[in-house]
Amino acid sequence: MAILRLALHSLLNRRFTALLTLLSIALSVALLLGVERIRSEARASFASTLSGTDLIVGARTGPVPLMLYSVFRIGNATNNISWQSYEEIAAMPRVAWTVPLSLGDSHRGFPVLGTSRAYFDHYRYGRDKPLQLAKGERFTDLYDAVLGAEVAAKLGYRLGDAIILAHGASDVSFARHDNKPFRVVGILERTGTPVDRSVHVSLEAIEAIHLGWEGGAPLRGLDIDAERARHMDLTPKAITAALVGLDSRIATFAVQRAINEYPQEPLLAVMPGVALSELWSVIGLAENALLVISACVVLVGLIGMLTALLIGLEGRRRELAILRSLGARPAQLFGLIIGEALLLTLLGMLLGLMLLSALLTLGQPLIEAQLGLHLGLGTPGPREWLLLSAVLATGLLVGLIPGWRAYRLSLSNGLSLRL
Amino acid sequence: MNPIIALSELRFRWRAQGPETLRIDALEVAAGERLFVEGPSGSGKSTLLGLLAGVNQPQQGRIQVLGERLDQLSPTARDRFRADHIGYLFQLFNLIPYLGILDNLTLPARFSRHRRARALARSPSLIAEAKRLLTHLDLDLDLDQRALARQAVSELSIGQQQRVAAARALFGSPALLIADEPTSSLDADRRRAFLELLFAECAEMGSTLIFVSHDASLEGLFDRTLRLQELNQATGRSGPTARQRAAPVAQAQAAQAPAAQAQAVLAQAPEASAALTAK
């Protein structure tokens, strides 16, 4: 105890270097924990992109690509599902509901999703949270659009604004469906999922804007205006994918097999949870790399402490000799230096936690608005405790080096005060 | 009366293959004695003090202090022995810079329960004992407890620092006080005053004093003088300091030429104790 008290006083005496060391440890610990918190939050938010849906059905491909284009709206489907197959799946026993998804168009870089009104009832995210309208209502008219929160915020749309959809992902003049403008009738609450970046219209609207576009571009002389389209048959011929809900979870495998073995068309049904974790194992690599880098930053911080302690030791030989003359054992002098390393690491970690909390408190609204990530302030989770103990253990290990040197010095120099 | 220190057939070298630094056939110090150890640098003073304090261990011979065979104790036991029974005073900068006066002074009580108990036997509290010692050593400080606790040792003059250091060495009445040239940084007047205060306090505590110096003018104040250069019969004498280790052998021998002559004379009179000029 006497030794720890000495360590504290000695640190206070060298408060300038100690403070700098403390600061570098605190910053690196704050970075490490911040990365870990963003990582776990991103993972949780990723895993909860889609819930309440039992199966996602699309043309035969891999589970990850199907997930990517149908839920995350990244990339394009290579094949569609025919409307007939969709209707037959909807009629399968144990299938409680289905929601069609039709993708391929965009609006100023944001994907356009053609779907049914049932989408707003059955799409769930997080812990079974339904979509909520922040303003307005669901689409009713053929040319109504409901915007995700980010689309509305980024492009500054309000209810009643007119928007033009574009064919495909690129928004160039010759590929615009500019003869059929849409009206914004609803804006969704922020969800932190790809829904925020989507423009939702009815399946029929997707059909309507593509009348005369069968070749992928408007055919000359076949220009059908918005009003005429209303009176035509707008039943879709194909959709991109479908969300399927069952009346019992137990039926999942049976229905999945039935769809995968569907004789008329090569289809694929995946369970969202399985596909999401498979997808995460790919994306997670980058997150791990980030964590490794921040762990290296912590190591650099601790090596800074090592340098400070080793340099400090050179000027403290006299102090060590005095303590020796008072009866301090070499082991106690070892403890004195280790104690300083321990105090610095502990205080650095504490300061780092405080720094992170302060940063999160200040940055929370911005992070939530920009990334849709909700970073909780609460106490550190089990993984964070694990990281903190790893930092402490490393600090202790680093302290062993100057501690050992003090031990050797006190043995070889004894009471002689040579410098 | 039993001697407080008894050395016999002592041999010491810093490294196993290195030259012999110290060879003392016999030395005894009586309890309560004030012994002046005189010798130029390189005569083995630091080595002898290190051996008496139990920091160094001889390759051969007996070191008995307070009836305890230091040469047979484990390093930890020797450290505890030093904490309990020996007060040590350095030449300069004796105080821990980051502790206040009071914390510096009461350090021996932190390392030894024994000395804590003896300090408390003299005064009602450690602080009271610290103040008593400071007053006795004529330290003109503001003895208000808080100021004393807070005042940094660096604010003291060299003379004041040495007196605080002496008070610390005497804290908890150690049986043996070892002082390694503690007055060399003081001017002549202060040197004498400091010594008188030290003597008075040693007498009151019943501590034996071993005082090392190369300043022969102080010799007269002590009970006995020990000329280490004559007592130490080591062949390859060289102190533990880097400066001396680096010095060329020839030069070192030249510097020690008079000493070698003295030894030659002594060799004819094998009584090593003749080197002790009794007073």
Q: What is the alpha-carbon Rg of chain A in Å?
A: 31 Å
And the CATH topology of chain B? Rossmann fold
- Name of the CATH superfamily of chain B: P-loop containing nucleotide triphosphate hydrolases
* Low-pLDDT residue spans of chain B: 239-279
Based on the coordinates given, report the CATH architecture of chain B: 3-Layer(aba) Sandwich
Question: How many angstroms separate the termini of chain A?
Answer: 29 Å
Based on secondary structure, the structural category of chain B is alpha/beta
Oligomer: heterodimer
Shape of chain A: elongated
Number of helices of chain A: 13
> How are helices and strands ordered from N to C of chain B?
EEEHEEHEHHHHHHEHEEHHHHE
Instruction: Give the overall shape of chain B.
Output: globular
Would you give an account of this structure?
The complex is a heterodimer of chains A (419) and B (279). Chain A has 419 residues and is an alpha+beta fold. Chain A has 13 helices and 14 strands. In chain A, strands 1, 3, 4, 7, 8, 9, 10, 11, 13 and 14 form a ten-stranded mixed sheet that branches. In chain A, strands 2-12 form a two-stranded antiparallel sheet. Chain A starts with a helix and ends in a 6-residue tail after the last helix. The longest helix of chain B is centred in the last third of the chain and has 18 residues, at 188-205. Chain B contains 13 helices and ten strands. In chain B, the strands form two sheets. In chain B, strands 6-7-8-3-9-10 form a six-stranded mixed sheet, with helices on both faces. A four-stranded antiparallel sheet of chain B has the order 2-1-4-5, covered by helices on one side. Chain B is an alpha/beta fold. Classes of the chains: A alpha+beta (419), B alpha/beta (279). At the A-B interface, helix 1 and helix 11 of A face helix 1, helix 2 and helix 4 of B.
